[in-house]
Amino acid sequence: MKKQMNKVLRQTEFWVFLIIIFLALIIQARSGAFFANNNIVDIMRSMICPSLYAVCALLAFVSTGPDVSFPLVAALSSYLAITISIKINYDGPWFVVYLIGMFFGALMGALNGFIIVKYKFPSLIVTLGTSSLFSGILLGTFEAARMDLPATLQRFAELSLLTVKNEKTGLGSTLPMTFLILVAVYIAAYLVLNYTMVGRGVYAIGGDEISAERAGFNVKKIRFGIFVVNGMIASIAGLCYAVMSMRYLPNEYAGGEMVVIAAIILGGTRMTGGIGTLKGCILGTLLLTMVTNSLILVGISVYWQKVFIGAIIIIGTAIPAIQSIFGKNKGKKVKGGEAA
Amino acid sequence: MKKKLKIDDNIFRLIIILVVFLLIAGITKGNSFLKVSIFQTMGRQMAEYGLMAVGCGICMISGGIDLSCVYVANLCGISAALLMQKNENAILPAILLAIVIGAACGAFNGFLISYLRIPPMLATLGSYQLFQGISVVISNGSTVSGAPEKYTDFGMKTVAGIPAAFLVFVLIIIIMSVVMGKTKFGARVFLVGTNAKCATFAGIKNKSIIIKTYMISGIVSGCAGLLSLARINSAKADFGTSYTMQCILIAVLGGVNPNGGFGTIPGIAIAVLILQVLSSYLNTFPDVSNYYRDCIWGIALIGVLILNHVINKKKSDKLAKMGS
Amino acid sequence: MENILSVKGIKKSFGGVHALKGVDLTIRKGETHCLAGENGCGKSTIIKVISGFYKPDGGTIEVDGRDYPVMTPADAIKAGVQVIYQDFSIFPNLTVIENLAFNQVLANGKKFVNKKEFRKIAEEAVAKINFNVDMDALVETLPVADKQLIAISRALLDNAKLIIMDEPTTALTKKEVKRLFEIIADLKKNGITILFVSHKLDEVFEISDSITILRSGENVISCPASEMTEEKFAYYMTGRHFDNQELADNKKRTYGEEVLSVENLSAPGFEDISFKLHKGEILGVTGQLGSGRTELSLSLFGLNRPTAGRIMVEGKEAKLTDVSKAEELGIALVPEDRLTEGLFLPQSIIKNITVTRFDALAGRLGFIREDSLVEESAKWVKELGVATKNHEFPVQTLSGGNQQKVVLAKWLANNPKILILNGPTVGVDIGAKYDIHKLLHKLAADGMAIIVVSDDTAEVIATCDSAIVMHDGRITGILEKEDLTEAKLAEAAI
């Protein structure tokens, strides 16, 4: 029992959870509106895309290193899916549009994966490069502009899972169907990561690549696969974003990667690889979403939003560092002892 | 000892690439490309992101990365502009203020990385949000303009036909080349970037080196912000966000090892020239969208990585053979 | 008795470098066979050939009476050959269960995770060597010895017939080594053959039935352990004769005045340590892994801040808050881990040697002339006999012994009064080890005060005038000159 307790206390996720509760209570106390039904639904809605991106970031960090290309993979693949659907006047089930997007996402991910696996370059630099490439293709070659969604996606966008109305303020909020997609992706990711050998391989590679190879994991295939899957998840997120905005907005994608990475690091993902959970992704994303969504509730100007996000990232990442400094001094061994 | 003047292979390659590009541009688009005004524009534009690339580059040499350059530049530009808005004659104080702010931002990054041991990528990721946030707050989220004419004149000034901004860039490049190549500080930055633990054991004060490195990056970025303010007479919190990536690209193109410990300032400078020539050349095709530049840069980054990889492999194979 | 393994005439080259020039290795069933040789002799290459990771250019491999024209890693495992690498091939970020079960599950071609099956496999594995461990713990939280036991028990799962252990005692304490040897003895009783790769004399003699020694990719000798002596062993490994008498004679030294006095010093890792060091004295600090010897050396170099007590250098109290303070006072430390603490591996020999001289060689504004660096480095390369063709080469192209000489040069260049060496000859060939010991005697004769921190008692006896023995962070014995013997060291260590 005590051992279990200790284990929970050592998890970063637990502390993030506490901070979230604490923050929620503060916001509630200051504004009285945090636990209002419309605010909760708003937060859930705002979390959909970042949480999907978070899975990409998690898979990449755990196994290889940072992937920063997912926003542009999302932008380009959803552009292609939407344009093709419009061009061929497609009007079948909505998910076929998603499948088209995933196909292109997979191709782009495969490019990332191929370069990273073949040449062993740092994934940050490679994905920066491919981001630039995808952005050039999207805005240069295709000259992508705002456009309306194909009819089938339009209908999908108008469906809602849940609509709430705050009795006091009269403000309403709806939870779109894309929330179910998020849930489905997380369940699938959870099952694969925890109950298949490939999923365990993702962690094994991140722990020790050479050991993984000796144990019999196909390191190259798994790593390549991760980037392909990342491409597919990114394209799902990209289409969800378009669906939720009711139109395709090519310029709204780029730049989201850093906050997502910050979220998963806050959620306990280790920058050096091997450690990180889906639970952490959700909690980290929730924390950052709460901050961005709730500033107005607390009466702080939106101008301060970035300052707060920056401060949270810095404080959040400094805590484990500070902990480890103190932890080391308390323990009997110092630096040199570990070298052996 | 043998040769006084050594040009390392990478710089040699870069110079060849530059010359080839210039030739192609000159031959295919001689009329519209080989014009004084084009070169003057090039000189002004590249000074700004070129400086940020130098800042980011030295941080990469020290084993880290600085993702905050652009936002430091914006913050410095906005601060200087606000001060000059209030007082027409405060040009010099405004410049000093910008440089001090740049240094302070850099020192803050260095502090996060060296004392709090936050990985550089994350530290500057967080601090860029913070700097951008501060810029938004002090500028109320809008564009700040209205710097005095005396100041903005500098942006258009030329000395013997060469834009003053470009001269500032060259001056800073020379200073930085000397600092990194000829001083004990520079030598230590390379060693800290190679192996920080070993550097500690060799008596190098890592924390101070890291803080100074990021401070230099901050100051250089601050200069970039000042130049940009002079050129377009406005500053904004989210100006030039795509430069962040471009800076990393230039540094890698210029031969900086993303893992730290290797790279040269002249290499970065030539990489800046190459990119500017390429992008100005593309501008001479009115049909070609500006966005194609992104495309080409992405391909160039990965292409250069692969090229360096192949060349280094050959070199190390050769060394292994000689060693045995 | 029949042979479990017989390889003949194995050749292997990498890009024109001949790593193996026709090596034979025959191991009888059920014996513990030692494979010895200096760094770069081809030990690790032959292991990789036997375990199927390298395809040899020539020669035959026979395992348990069967010929393998082509040996793949999977073949090797099927044939019962298991390698326990120095890094143990573990996943620090995963649980003990997963570390134990992965190989088996993957070998069976399973695609899904069955947690019950995982646990069953893991429990079966640890049962084989009666190993008690928290199954759900993350491996990174376990001590080194446990990590090794995980690797051993995992190897046994695959019906191992031949277990190859690559330098298995490097990171273990004496106690842990003893436990490992007990386990090896147990395995032997169960008919499992062990190929023990090591260069530590005492261990080789204690554990092995027969010995094969390689030198630069060729067989030197194969014989029963009983026919081997210490002198022969050193000779076969290096091809050189060593005059240990010379080293022993050097010890008749007289000390100068006191340069360092440590008084009741405590810091994280050790408590209440006092000793004195004189000019021209070589003091040994010995103790097991975790005894606080490394922490003490770090404290004397400004890397582990003391919590109580004081350090006096030449009669004045020294506040050693960081390395540069220690440097100013003329203290130098050759660190324990050469590769991560001692060298900038991809940088040139010049930069590695001159790093401590930047301040001295720089002008008033901090400018350094390249020439002065090159001269300084050339001087030390010559002085210490570093074998290299070009000083611009990265230091990683050098052999272990030459690398250690570069580390020494780096500190000697600073002309220290007190030189502390932590594990000065770990991973260094016997030849280079001898050279380094000789150099220490010379430096002491010239008046340098030296502290040798080492767990290698033979080294302490061979080089030191006196020694302090540490255990669990405290001094448990101080041995002066003639008291400094193997027996008394062992006695004090408990």
What does this 3D model show about the protein?
Chain A has helices spanning 2-10, 12-31, 37-63, 70-87, 95-119, 123-141, 151-158, 178-195, 197-207, 209-215, 219-245, 257-266, 278-298, 305-330, 335-339, and strands at 147-148, 160-165, 172-176, 247-248. Chain A is mainly α. In chain A, helix 12 (257-266) runs parallel beside helix 14 (305-330). The longest helix of chain A has 27 residues, at 37-63. Chain A is globular, with a radius of gyration of 21 Å. Chain B has one domain: ABC transporter involved in vitamin B12 uptake, BtuC, CATH 1.10.3470. The two termini of chain B are 25 Å apart. Residues 1-5 of chain B have low confidence and may be disordered. By secondary structure, chain C is an alpha/beta fold. Chain C has a six-stranded mixed β-sheet, sandwiched between helices. The longest helix of chain C has 16 residues, at 174-189. Chain C is globular and about 70 Å long. The model of chain C has no long low-confidence stretch (mean pLDDT 85).
- Based on CA atoms alone, the radius of gyration of chain C comes out at 25 Å
Proportion of residues in β-strands of chain A: under 5%
Based on the structure given, which CATH architecture of the largest domain in chain C is correct? 3-Layer(aba) Sandwich
- Main sheet record of chain C: 6 strands, mixed
User: Which whole number gives the mean pLDDT of chain A?
Assistant: 86
List its salient traits.
heterotrimer, A: mainly alpha, two-stranded antiparallel ribbon, 15 helices, globular, disordered C terminus, C: 494 residues, alpha/beta, Rossmann fold, 2 domains, 19 helices, 25% strand
Explain the layout of strands and helices.
The complex is a heterotrimer of chains A (340), B (324) and C (494).
Chain A: H1 2-10, H2 12-31, H3 37-63, H4 70-87, H5 95-119, H6 123-141, E1 147-148, H7 151-158, E2 160-165, E3 172-176, H8 178-195, H9 197-207, H10 209-215, H11 219-245, E4 247-248, H12 257-266, H13 278-298, H14 305-330, H15 335-339
Helix pairs in contact in A: 2-13, 3-8, 3-9, 3-11, 3-12, 3-13, 4-5, 4-6, 4-11, 5-6, 5-11, 8-9, 9-10, 9-11, 12-13, 12-14, 13-14
Chain B: H1 9-33, H2 36-61, H3 69-86, H4 91-114, H5 120-139, E1 144-145, H6 149-156, E2 158-159, E3 162-163, H7 164-182, H8 184-194, H9 196-201, H10 206-232, E4 234-235, H11 243-253, H12 265-283, H13 292-323
Antiparallel strand pairs in B: 1-4, 2-3
Helix pairs in contact in B: 1-12, 2-7, 2-10, 2-11, 2-12, 3-4, 3-5, 3-10, 4-5, 4-10, 6-10, 7-8, 8-10, 11-12, 11-13
Chain C: E1 3-14, E2 17-28, E3 32-36, H1 43-50, E4 58-63, E5 66-67, H2 73-78, E6 81-84, H3 96-107, H4 115-128, H5 144-157, E7 162-166, H6 174-189, E8 193-197, H7 201-207, E9 210-215, E10 218-224, H8 230-238, H9 244-250, E11 258-267, E12 270-278, E13 282-287, H10 293-299, E14 308-313, E15 316-317, H11 323-328, E16 331-334, H12 338-342, H13 349-354, H14 358-361, H15 370-384, H16 400-412, E17 418-422, H17 430-445, E18 449-454, H18 457-463, E19 466-471, E20 474-480, H19 486-492
Parallel strand pairs in C: 3-8, 3-9, 6-7, 7-8, 13-18, 13-19, 16-17, 17-18
Antiparallel strand pairs in C: 1-2, 1-4, 4-5, 9-10, 11-12, 11-14, 14-15, 19-20
